[in-house]
UniProtKB/TrEMBL annotation:
<dbReference type="InterPro" id="IPR036691">
    <property type="entry name" value="Endo/exonu/phosph_ase_sf"/>
</dbReference>
<keyword id="KW-0255">Endonuclease</keyword>
<dbReference type="GO" id="GO:0004519">
    <property type="term" value="F:endonuclease activity"/>
</dbReference>
<feature type="domain" description="Endonuclease/exonuclease/phosphatase">
    <location>
        <begin position="26"/>
        <end position="243"/>
    </location>
</feature>
<dbReference type="Pfam" id="PF03372">
    <property type="entry name" value="Exo_endo_phos"/>
</dbReference>
<dbReference type="InterPro" id="IPR005135">
    <property type="entry name" value="Endo/exonuclease/phosphatase"/>
</dbReference>
<keyword id="KW-0540">Nuclease</keyword>
<protein>
    <submittedName>
        <fullName>Endonuclease/exonuclease/phosphatase family protein</fullName>
    </submittedName>
</protein>
<keyword id="KW-0378">Hydrolase</keyword>
Amino acid sequence: MPTSPSVSPLPASRTESDGSAVIRVLSYNIRSMRDDTAALARVIGACEPDLVLVQEAPRFFRWRKKLARLAAASGQVILSGGGTASGPALLCSLRATVERTEDVLLPLTPGLHRRGFATAVVRFGGAARLGVLSCHLSLQKDERHEQGGMLLDRLAALGTPHAVAGGDLNERPNGRTFKRLATELRDGWAVAPWGAEYTSTPTDPHQRIDALFATEGVEVLGCGVPIGHPGVTEADLRAATDHLPVLAALRVPAS
């Protein structure tokens, strides 16, 4: 795996004296937990996230129990999504105050996989309300572009002053859907690169198809693949799933 371009540690979660909150957000495609779930839990736990945006959460037999086990093993609780969102899910730490959640199923294109969004509105201390959305966009480029527009509309409909969205986009930064999102939102890696860039695949990282985005007003303190992060080993990253995670530290303004 490539080494990190930044040697500085990622800022830890904290509440600032002005009421703003520094939070850690992790986006991770977990491939339905078909790989080494102990390694997966170790990676998530070592990142110490306040929010986890999951893609390809278990969707079928006993999916809630499987997701709950992962949450417990990694120091999280289930916030929303999973089978009811056709794969995307949200986990959170006990630091989050949850205002509401909603699972959204997107229009089904015959012959293609059903897609959805897991969404929530949360607060951290005295910081402003934060909208959150996890997505896994289509492999088909036209459907993917439509889903990018739906993502932006859904994020706006959450009615929060600030928001964060992320997931597996199935597209590189030069793609039109990725560009559309990066025009309307702030691409974490482009704004404040930290760690490593490429998210696919763990054994041969060569492309960035997973990303975290934030709205204007949310300060990106660092964002990237947590290679070299304390407690995150290359062995666990390779064993956990077929994607590498994206970790960001964000500062959410005071309310």
